[in-house]
Amino acid sequence: MNSLYGTVRLVSEDSLWFFGKLLFLYITIPITLVWLLIGYLFGLGDETVVSITGPAYFFAPIFAIAGFKSLYPIAIGLGSTRTQFLKVFYSVGLVSVVLSILFVNGLHGLLKAVFQQWDIDSNIFQLGLFLVNDYHFLTYLWIDLMFVLFLLGISFLLYSIKFRLGTRKSLFALMLLSLVTMFLYYGGYLTTSMDWFMELDLAALKMKLISLIGLSGIIALLVTYPIMRNASLKPKARKE
Q: Where are the bilayer-spanning segments (predicted)?
């Protein structure tokens, strides 16, 4: 029980510093205040694109890699097991991502409400602009969340493969996969699948597709569990 509590506290404190302090206190909130100040003092034209989501999109995969890299040996050294640390890391990471995206979307809603109050017609950038015509808070929140979950899962999966195999074997596996895909594609074996995909009404399925993207990120994250549960404390050397 003590090792579990210690692991939860270790990962939670790092997550709080990374997302709460570094992402929001030092980056996102100041950017939001700057946009509000600029809008109040100078106004913003229709051509201006206001964005505060960029850092949140990229902090999730950075935390997946940098957070694991720094916390993993510390947690094991303090008595945590590999499986225990992985479960805690997944849980805390997912909760942190959900709360971060919720907070970012809350700031977006605040910006939109204030700009409307000030009769400012600038464009506030979010991924939902490409998928939904009208602004809906929950829809935009879902799109952002699915995209960030995809980045989180895929980035940690790629890192886990490199961690276990090393750079040389990882590159060899990537090259082998690329060659197989090329042979299948130019050999006509993927023609049926490609034709089926091209015939899909992507405009009608866009929300389902973004949900599948998020689900694939979660699946990728779960796949890392059997890869990393018996991993050594240090990754494979670069030349291995």
A: 23-44, 56-76, 88-111, 137-159, 171-189, 209-228
